[in-house]
Each structure stands twice: as structure tokens, then as C-alpha cells.
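Re: your question about Anti-sigma factor

S., sorry for the slow reply, the queue was backed up all week. Below is exactly what I fed in.
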Amino acid sequence: MTQHHPDSHSLMEYSAGNLSDPHALCIRLHLDQCPHCRSRVDMLDSLGAVMMEQQTSVDVSEGMFDRILDTIDQQPEAAPTPKKPVGNPLERLLGSDINTLPWKRQLADVSVLDITHLFPSQPEQVVLQKLTAGGKAPAHTHRGSETTIVLQGAFSDHKGVFKQWDFVVLDQSDEHKPVALEGDDCITLSVLSAPVKLTGTFTRLLNPFIR
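Result:
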């Protein structure tokens, strides 16, 4: 079961169709595996449909949606509906299983695949990253925001352990050094508004070459 979820504002923006395609994809991948967040979005969709049908002009604050979502959270959670093995939206977009992609080794334990070209009208960088099982990524911070969803395996950092389908958002205030758990390679999908900034003693020299 997923432990780290998109926040209320992100779910509200997803329901309203206001997110960029890469960010919407990250949330969609999470929703496909998380009945908790799926029920919240279903309620937001229903509320939006009623408002449009009644052509109601209402000042809906984020606090109002938070109260609605809190009410949903207090209700018993329905059992997840079994899913057919048809492949997730990312693999359909890639036309390939994530383990068979042409990964590019970037550092000792880190391989990447930039898929920004699949979102030509979007300003963000969209990157798949693979961290070898038990491997460590270099310490880094962010020049902007980074939205990440775990597609396979798991990693740990200063915020905790993030397993498959967990969702995390980082910004300039976060400096971390992800470590992949043993077992499977950790594969993530990240959407970045700006390049990362390496902070390690030696890896800082690579900053000019990191997009």
C-alpha cells in the first residue's frame, strides 16, 4: 500500500485539468494503484460536475476542498478493484517495459533516460532515473521543484522510505542523497522545473554537465 500521496492542492488541480501533462501522468500512475487518492479525486470530479451542471459561480477556496477531503478520509475505504494487466499509461507512452529501455549510465549507480521529447509543448524536464539496488545517488539539492513517483523498487532519504507508487515533491529547501533498497533496482519518473544541483565534494564539479 502506498504511504506517500499527492497533497490536496495537487489532487484538486488534477481533477480540474489544470496540471501539465507530465505532472498529470505522475498523479495518474499513483491513482491507478491508490484507492485512497482515487476516492478523493472521484469526489472532487463529482463536485465539479454538479457545479458545472448548476452553472454555479462559487468562491471555492483550497480550505473548502481540504474539509471535503477530510470528510472522505473519515469514511471506510472501499476494497480496491482488481485491475487487468494492460500496462500503465507510461509504458503505453514509451511502447516498452521500463526495464528494457536504452538507459544511459550517468554515474556509478545512476542511469537516466530523458523523455522530455515525448512532451513537446511542456516546459519541464521529464526524466526516468534508475538507481542500482543498494546503490547511492550523489547528494544534491534542487534549483526548482521536482515531482517524483516510484515505478519500481524503493529508496530512502531524509524524508523516509519511498516504495513503489509512492509520490514525493522536493524543492530548493531539500538536500538529499537517495539510497536504493536492496532487492530491485529503483526506477523513478521525475518532472523537474529546473536542473538539480550536486552538492557533494567531488560531484559538484559535474554541475556544468548536469542538465
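The two ends are 33 Å apart (CA to CA). The chain has five helices and eleven strands.

Happy to talk it through on Thursday.
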